[in-house]
Structure formats: structure tokens, C-alpha cells
Design goal:
The structure holds 2 protein chains of 2 kinds. By secondary structure, chain A is mainly α. Chain A has 9 helices and no strands. The chains are: A mainly alpha, B mainly alpha.
Chain lengths: 195, 65
């Protein structure tokens, strides 16, 4: 029998810490993340009877967490600072990856990423992924995680943030380029170097 | 003919909107001839899958540190 994190104190602490890290990657605001996680636990306790055991408790609690995050974001005006998100784009040096004709520069060209499937089974990989998400500029990360963590469509992100859809595409692209560079440098290329 | 830079943009956008027929064709044509962009496309999909797992709480339980 796996332990039930909602009744086992040690497991509960672990779960809470993971939820907090996740909420903070999304919100970029520690205090707000604490509130959201607290709300999530209250909802989870209330809805305890509706948990059917089809998924793990963690997966179930994370689905409540994502809903709570969506509500928290929608109730906040100016969750994303639109003028800042544009200037943040310059921090992700997209142009350094390509030459003037739009071809890959030598050092930026994609190499084979060794065994992404195995990477995903390695808990160290998830730490690196979190570090890399955390490295994204603040407002860029908020837009990116609205899309990728919460699965919001670009027009929903536009309604919440006041950004144009084409601008959102630009920000998402930059975020992915930045994340890929970080994963290359901190995970896939260092792995490759040891082989 | 799309450049690699334009192709990376489409590789990202196809995760957020359906590409037009014309975009899909020129994208596919480029990937057939360009291994680097082809790998890039795979990396985008890998990142999407990994982040989706992270957000569903489907990651290995972390040890206390």
C-alpha cells in the first residue's frame, strides 16, 4: 500500500514542497504561491471523497492546484507586465543562435539529445528542468507557464494579460528557445560529454 | 524556402495553433532536408511532454533534502 500523503506527515511535507515549487515557478511570487497551495489543500480535504484512486493522490492534488492557479491568475489584474515582457525578450539572445541568413550558427545547431525518455525517469533531470524554468525572465515565464502548465489557449492568455496573440507567440517561442539552450547546457550536453 | 530561424518559429507555433497547409508543407519540406531542425522539432516536443508531466504531478517523488 502506498502511503496516503494527505494523512502521512512526512509525505504531506514532501508533497507540499513540490506543490509550492510548482506554484512559485508559475506565479513568481512566494507569498501568493503559499496562499494558492493552502487553498488547494483545503479544497483537497473538502473533496477527499471524490478521489477515486484512478490516479495517484499527487496527480489528483496537482489537478486541483492547477485550477486554483488559474483562478488566482484570472483574479489578478496585470499578472503579466506587458511592456516588461517585450524587453525581457532581449535577454534570450535569439539572434546569437542564427547567422544573418537565418541558418544555425555552429555552436547552436541541435545535437542529438541522448535518451530523453531515460532523462525523464531520472529525478535529477526534473531538478534541472525546474532550474531552467526558473531561469526564464519573470514575465516570460508567467506567459509560458500559463500555456504549458495550465494549458491555456493563446486567446485566453491574451484576454487575461491584454497581450496580442502574435505577441504571445513571440514570447512563447523565446521561452522555448531559452529553455532549450538551458537544457542543452545543463543536462543534455554535459551528459553527452561523459560518454 | 524557409530559413532555420523561421522553421524554429513554426516548430514553436505549431504547439500553440494549427499551422496553415502552406506552412505545414514548407515546414515538412525543410525538415526532410535539415537534420538540425528536425532534431530541434523533436526537442520541442520532448519539452512539451516533460513539462506536461511536471504540471500533472507525474514526476518521480523527490527525496527530502
Amino acid at each position: 500500500m502506498p502511503t496516503d500523503p494527505l494523512t502521512d506527515p512526512a509525505a504531506l511535507t514532501r508533497l507540499r514542497r513540490e506543490m509550492l515549487r510548482f506554484a512559485e515557478l508559475q506565479l513568481r511570487d512566494r507569498a501568493l504561491a503559499e496562499d494558492v497551495v493552502q487553498d488547494t489543500f483545503i479544497k483537497a480535504m473538502d473533496k477527499r471523497d471524490s478521489f477515486e484512486g484512478r490516479a495517484s493522490i499527487k496527480t489528483w492534488v496537482f489537478s486541483i492546484l492547477r485550477n486554483t492557479l488559474i483562478n488566482a491568475i484570472r483574479s489578478r489584474a496585470k499578472f503579466v507586465d506587458v511592456s516588461t515582457v517585450e524587453s525581457e525578450g532581449e535577454q534570450v539572445a535569439l539572434d546569437a543562435l542564427f547567422d544573418a541568413n537565418g541558418r544555425w550558427m555552429d555552436g547552436a545547431r541541435s545535437e542529438v539529445w541522448l535518451a530523453p525518455d531515460q532523462a525523464a525517469e531520472n529525478s535529477a533531470f526534473w531538478e534541472v528542468l525546474e532550474v531552467c524554468l526558473n531561469d526564464l525572465p519573470e514575465n516570460t515565464a508567467r506567459v509560458f507557464t500559463m500555456r504549458e502548465f495550465l494549458g491555456l489557449a493563446t486567446d485566453e492568455i491574451g484576454q487575461t494579460t491584454g497581450m496580442s496573440v502574435s505577441n504571445i507567440h513571440v514570447v512563447l517561442h523565446r521561452a522555448r528557445m531559452g529553455l532549450r539552450e538551458c537544457l542543452r547546457q545543463r543536462w543534455f550536453e554535459t551528459e553527452a560529454a561523459t560518454c | 524556402m524557409l530559413s532555420c530561424k523561421q522553421v524554429t518559429r513554426l516548430a514553436s507555433e505549431k504547439l500553440d495553433r494549427p499551422l496553415s497547409l502552406r506552412e505545414r508543407l514548407s515546414f515538412r519540406m525543410h525538415l526532410m532536408m535539415c537534420a538540425a531542425c528536425s532534431r530541434f522539432d523533436g526537442q520541442m516536443q520532448f519539452m512539451r511532454t516533460a513539462i506536461s508531466r511536471l504540471s500533472r504531478g507525474e514526476t518521480p517523488d523527490r527525496e527530502d533534502r
